[in-house]
Design goal:
The complex is a heterodimer of chains A (150) and B (448). Chain A is mainly alpha-helical and 150 residues long. Chain A is built from five helices and two strands. Chain A folds into two domains: 33 residues; 91 residues, Cytochrome Bc1 Complex, Chain D, domain 2. In chain A, 51% of the residues lie in helices and 3% in strands. Chain B has 448 residues and is mainly alpha-helical. The chains are: A mainly alpha (150), B mainly alpha (448).
């Protein structure tokens, strides 16, 4: 290390630089909030159903097996695009029924296959969950995931 | 040990080791379920096991950080801890809170965001615990000598508490939720926790090599500068695909690539200090953990982080087994090992003994490191295959999971090795060697 750098100079660089980068981060975060609410997400589309669906998603800790937009556990499939995978953008009713039917039929009990528990969701909760999946699938994610497999 | 209140660290280290065992047993169970998926699927489903695995990790690391602070702040500040009573109360509140959370998880009582599953009341308890701690440490610092080591450690702890407050903000808009969730998760592990880690390593190096404090502290400022200058905007590497603007792909790629620098600096710094200062300290095991921490953190957080941080690569690897490969080695190398280093260093002092069970302790070092390295390699292999099959070829997730199953068997085996290493470590720390204990009574402390 350069002999010219004293401890107090190093300390001042630390405090000054940290403050600078923190301000940049906060400024970019503020811009991103505005981008999210105006451009990338359908704020008007956050119906009570979508909000309820997010609560169902959280209450059952789905994130600790699945990923959602690539974040979460890696034990079960990505669900950020599950609506598209079930063809929801072409036939919404069939996709809704398909997803609900699939959840209701868990666990499969098939030997050697990863099991999803029976979370005993009511029909209303299932519908809300599907509303949430549909809404998430409309987030503009810079075209991630690369394909339907998620 | 020069100050009576350093003893406050003892229960914190015991709790840390206890929860460490719980954490790796949880991990072992989760790894077993990967291989035998029907196991416990009705009674303790995978999501609960994983919740316990990750939460126990976070809590025991915090116990270790608290203990480290109570141990080293008096020596650094050259004064007793402001209020031993608060430190004891804080310990019990945190332990009861952690136990309540784990028992709650087993009964399905939890919130739903990853790593932040603690029920609201537990989150509030965590904030109270943090405030008690910060008050205690800050008051101690104010009345005592203000060294760079204690200052950086305290700033790290303040940052930890402040960023945790974002855990209380859970907007309905998922993109916003995710963006601010990273304010806790990223700014902890790729931000303020690195300050805590660097401060603890600096303390250990000063104590064990006898090197001039001025040199160490100048380096410490350089390292933590590099950490935050890169790590704050490095947050951007989590903002590629969650509904955030496209410019984050540039900012995240550039700054998170630079996040390797502080880890490289830590390796260079540690080895330079040890070479200059000599390694004649009687606690060879603590020195091994200290140097090992620098190296493994560089590989786990630095190299394995860089592996998938560039946006065009992350586009394909995001959310595959590449992420847990990196996550496991990064947490182990940086935060597990720094805790095991300070515990190894402090326990003989806390128990009034000469360094004991050194060989056993060093065995645990090599066993744990081998196990974690192998785990990282096999998860990386699984991740590369998964990326190709799923993201390039478009094969469905469950089918791919079957294709890469072999690596999960290997991961389970490496997990068993890690658990063995952990059990040896805890045994080495807690078992009493009578000869050593007597030696400790006659000649109270090793030279520092």
């Amino acid at each position: 290390m350069s002999e010219g750098l004293t401890k107090s100079t190093a300390r001042n660089i630390f405090f000054g630089g940290t403050l600078f980068f923190l301000i940049v981060l906060v400024a970019l975060t503020a811009h991103s909030v505005s981008y999210i609410t105006k451009n990338s997400t359908d704020v008007a589309g956050i119906t009570p159903g979508v909000a309820h669906g997010k609560a169902v998603w959280e209450r059952n800790s789905c994130i600790n097996c699945h990923t959602l937009l690539g974040e979460g556990a890696y034990y079960a499939p990505e669900l950020g695009n599950v609506w598209a995978r079930y063809g929801g953008f072409e036939d919404a009713e069939a996709a809704r029924d398909g997803i609900k039917h699939w959840i209701k039929n868990q666990p499969t009990g098939i030997e050697g296959r990863r099991q999803m528990p029976d979370f005993k969701l009511s029909d209303e909760e299932l519908d809300a969950l599907v509303d949430f999946f549909r809404w998430v699938n409309t987030i503009k994610t810079q075209d991630w995931p690369p394909n339907e497999a998620g | 040990m020069k100050y009576e209140t350093q003893k406050l660290a003892y229960p914190y280290f015991l709790a840390a080791m206890g929860l460490f065992v719980a954490q790796v047993l949880g991990g072992l169970l989760a790894g077993t379920v990967y291989v035998f998926p029907n196991l416990l699927s009705e009674t303790i489903p995978f999501h609960i096991i994983r919740m316990i695995h990750t939460n126990a990790l976070i809590v025991w690391l915090l116990f270790g950080f608290f203990g480290a602070a109570y141990y080293l702040i008096p020596e650094e500040a050259e004064t007793e801890i402001h209020s031993p009573g608060i430190a004891k109360l804080q310990f019990w509140l945190f332990l009861i809170g952690a136990a309540a959370a784990v028992v709650g998880y087993l009964f399905g009582i939890h919130e739903g965001r990853e790593f932040l599953e603690q029920p609201l009341i537990i989150k509030v308890a965590i904030v109270i615990v943090a405030l008690m701690f910060l008050y205690n440490i800050t008051m101690t610092l104010i009345k005592g000598r203000k060294t760079a080591v204690s200052l950086i450690l305290t700033i790290g702890m303040w940052g930890l508490a402040l960023f945790f407050l974002f855990a209380f903000y859970n907007p309905t808009n998922l993109a916003l939720d995710k963006m601010f969730w990273w304010y806790v998760v990223h700014l902890w592990v790729e931000g303020v926790w690195e300050l805590i880690m660097a401060a603890i390593l600096s303390f250990l190096l000063i104590k064990m090599t006898g090197i001039d404090r001025e040199v160490v502290e100048k380096w410490l400022y350089v390292i933590v500068s590099l950490t935050l200058f890169t790590g704050l905007l490095g947050t951007g590497h989590h903002y590629y695909w969650i509904g955030t603007p496209g410019y984050w792909q540039w900012i995240g790629s550039i700054f998170s690539t630079l996040e390797v620098l502080p880890f490289l600096a830590i390796v260079v710094f540690t080895f330079m200090i040890v070479r200059k200062g000599g390694r004649n300290h009687p606690n060879q095991a603590a020195l091994l953990w200290t140097m090992g921490c620098a190296v493994m953190a560089f590989f786990g957080a630095g190299v394995w982080g860089f592996l998938h941080t560039l946006a065009p690569i992350n586009y394909l690897t995001h959310g595959t087994q590449i992420t847990p490969a990196h996550g496991h080695l990064a947490f182990f190398g940086a935060y597990v090992m720094v805790n095991l280093a300070i515990i190894t260093y402090a326990m003989p002092h806390l128990r009034g003994m000469q360094p004991y069970n050194q060989v056993l302790n060093m065995w645990s070092f090599w066993i744990m490191c081998s196990g974690m390295a192998f785990m990282t390699f096999v998860l990386t292999a699984a991740g590369v295959l998964q990326t190709h099959l799923q993201r390039v070829m478009g094969i469905g997730f469950m089918e791919v999971a079957d294709e890469i199953n072999f690596f999960f068997i290997l991961r389970l085996l490496s997990g068993i090795v890690v658990v063995v290493g952990v059990l040896i470590y805890v045994y080495a720390m807690l078992s009493t060697d009578k000869e050593q204990a007597q030696a400790g009574e006659t000649s109270p402390q090793a030279a520092e």
